Amino acid sequence: MRKISLTGIKPTGDLHIGNYFGTIRPALELAKTHDARYFIADYHALNIMKNPKELSATIRHVAAGWLASGLDPEKVIFYRQSSIPETFELTTMLMAFTPKGQMNRAHAYKAAVQENNERGNDPDAGINMGLFTYPVLMAADIILFDSDIVPVGQDQVQHVEMAADMAQAVNFNYKQEVLKVPQAGVQDDVAVVPGLDGRKMSKSYGNVIPLFAPEKDLRKTIMRIVTNSQGVEEPKDPDTSQIFLLYKLFASPEEQAAFAARYRAGGMGWGDAKEELFRAVNRVLSPMREHYNALMADPANIDRILAQGAEKARPIAAATVKRFRKATGIEA
Ligand code: ADP
Ligand code: TRP
């Protein structure tokens, strides 16, 4: 039997190449050898996104993003979290097996508290219960579909480990394998895609290269990459340059070797390096951008694809919840 791969993306903004290399591409690679279940985590987004127009537009954007990146809805079960009500029943059940102290230790919540403390605010300021219980909802997403492996970026590993703890706590209590224990899958070579300023690429840092920006905007964004003050003639170290690190994601090994040699030889300025990077990025992204634009021109089609995915997903979800309800004694 094939193993099950599952992941989700929160529709909270424009997809960027960190999302693509960190999550989408490895997930689509896994879909070749696994039974894949990929979804749009729209209830996770609700914690942050309170503008209805923006949220509904971003949901379609992320859906089109997956499809334009090559997700085949005939092979992958592709759906919206909000279409699977069993998710919320399982969330409630898992709450009973989740120590509150574990939630206190979750990175996203801890970071929000720390920021409040640093600003002299009340520690709970601006923190909703959705953020606090975020790892339980995410565990439900994962466990509901009997996931073996969850392809995510490094920052999500803790959440997957928490999901594994919850499944184990349930299995231990009922002395049987009620729930599948999941594992995170992180691709080492692209664990963290650097942003324009060298920090992790993230929409919260405003340092992203968007996945589907028009060509002109893509070029402008790449030209904004922060560099040091080394002159044109100076030899440069490719391994400490985010231009080179980004280039590696888009170029063949031969192209990478040639580009690294130009760095080391001197005579290549940062402007030239960025131009070279733009060409490599655009070569990969332009067919995806075209596909994306075509999908976005027909939103009803996107909605139909997601609805069909939900129909395939729900019986799997229902079976997991039923198994768990029986184990608890709630259902005879
Ligand atoms: P952001 O940091 O921009 O808010 P999200 O938190 O929405 O991005 O991330 C969605 C998915 O993309 C997650 O699985 C995350 O691990 C992955 N991801 C985001 N940024 C990067 C990055 N710079 N490198 C690798 N993976 C990333
Ligand atoms: N928390 C993930 C993120 O911020 C999104 C997500 C929600 C997810 N549910 C999931 C990822 C289940 C993997 C599996 O990126």
Superfamily (CATH H level) name of the largest domain: HUPs
CATH top-level class of the largest domain: Alpha Beta
Could you spell the SSE succession in H and E letters? EHEHHEHHHHHEHEHHHHH
Number of helices in the DSSP assignment: 14
Kindly give the count of domains. 2
CATH topology of the largest domain: Rossmann fold
Biggest β-sheet, characterized? 3 strands, parallel
What distance separates the N and C termini? 30 Å
Using only C-alpha atoms, the radius of gyration works out to 22 Å
Query: What would CATH call the architecture of the largest domain?
Result: 3-Layer(aba) Sandwich
Strand count = 5
The main sheet orders its strands as 1-2-3
User: Which structural class matches the secondary elements?
Assistant: mainly alpha
Portion of residues within helices: 55-70%
Mean pLDDT: 96
Shape: globular
The protein's oligomeric status is single chain
Provide an overview of this structure.
With 332 residues, the chain is mainly alpha-helical. It folds into two domains: 4-192 and 299-328, Rossmann fold; 212-292, Tyrosyl-Transfer RNA Synthetase. The chain has 14 helices and five strands. It has a three-stranded parallel sheet. Strands 4-5 form a two-stranded parallel sheet. The two termini are 30 Å apart. The mean pLDDT is 96. The site of adenosine-5'-diphosphate (ADP) has 18 residues, from helix 1.
